[in-house]
Amino acid sequence: MKILVINSGSSSLKYQLIDMETESVLAKGNCERIGIDNSNFIYKTPAKTIEKLIDMPNHDVAVSIVLKTLTDSEVGVISSMSEIDGVGHRVVASGEAFKQPSLVTPENMVKMEEIKDLAPLHNPAAIVGVKACLAQMPNTPMVLVFDTGFHFTMPDYAYMYAIDYSHYEKYKIRRYGAHGTSHKFVAQEAAKYLQKDIESLNIITCHLGNGSSITAVKGGKCIDTSMGFTPLAGVAMGTRSGDIDYAAAEYIARKEGMDVSQMLNYLNKRSGMLGVSGVSSDFRDLDEAAKEGNYRADLALNIFAYGTKKYIGAYAAALNGVDCIVFTAGVGENDPGTRSRILANMEYLGVKLDEYKNTHCVRGAISEIQADDSAVKILVIPTNEELVIARETMVVANLA
Ligand code: ADP
Fold this sequence. Notes:
By secondary structure, the protein is an alpha/beta fold. Helix content is 38%, strand content 19%.
């Protein structure tokens, strides 16, 4: 059983072919700069890596190059396209139109068109990706898997905003969250690792990367998450402000002569770690600059850590106690300094880090980093969003 996972961006298409018997990656890669000059094709198998410039004027061409390479007699990993049993497509935003992963059908594609503007950069790209795959593999079952899917178990008082209720009814304005496949994966991995029934666990999952979100998971189900209607909400991020007093945004816009869309661009692209530090949005650069005594880089890291700490505290209250805190994604998995800043002085909650374990995690493996006398387990778990998409595809397409 082999599942192809497709993650389409407006000018990119990431792919992974996964053998579901072993849950191992047969091949993966990226088509970059689709529709732009110098399009780049990357293809990796356990045996070799190919990277070359190929003209990819649109996603149809990109998909056909991916399929041709996967079935190539020399570098391919399958002998024909018929070996691909299903295709899972990552979709960023679902609104309330899709509360579950869903089969690609003509009706569902109409619904996809209707929710395009919930993620204007990402959702249209997903539609293009689905159509490109359908054109090449019309008889292969395909499934839409949404980043928001895991969060639909939140109770109404957690997902509703305190605004005019008619705007929820009319426009479905509410908290949807993001990174759902990642939060789901690491929560399940944590339970497996701890050899506990997930039903019995209160877990706080911290997906910390360029974009960051924190989720409270009770009995395997999301009960709250830090991102909101869009990924702009929650903790400060690489270039996003996270939560801010809207009146402050309006004040800056007025003073600097920005309209609403310019202000949103400012909050999404020019704020966060980049805005505060003036150095970079990348935590590696910030760690380096902070070590060299750069005050604003150090401040940015402290704002991020303090914001994350406050979410952990809030979710410990929402969950009525926490058994396990999980760190994942680029920063969560690889930045011991940031984990240390977040978890300092949390003994009151039963959270105590072991600094030696924290700095000696094995990359790519699950690491346990709490002190022996910590009541709460602290785990670093590599995320695998593609595998979750592939698993959901198997279930929804009845391939399991
Ligand atoms: P995205 O949200 O784009 O998926 P990732 O989860 O890939 O982000 O995380 C990317 C971020 O991870 C980078 O911006 C970088 O700040 C951070 N990162 C990656 N490796 C390290 C490292 N060794 N130390 C500190 N930060 C790291």
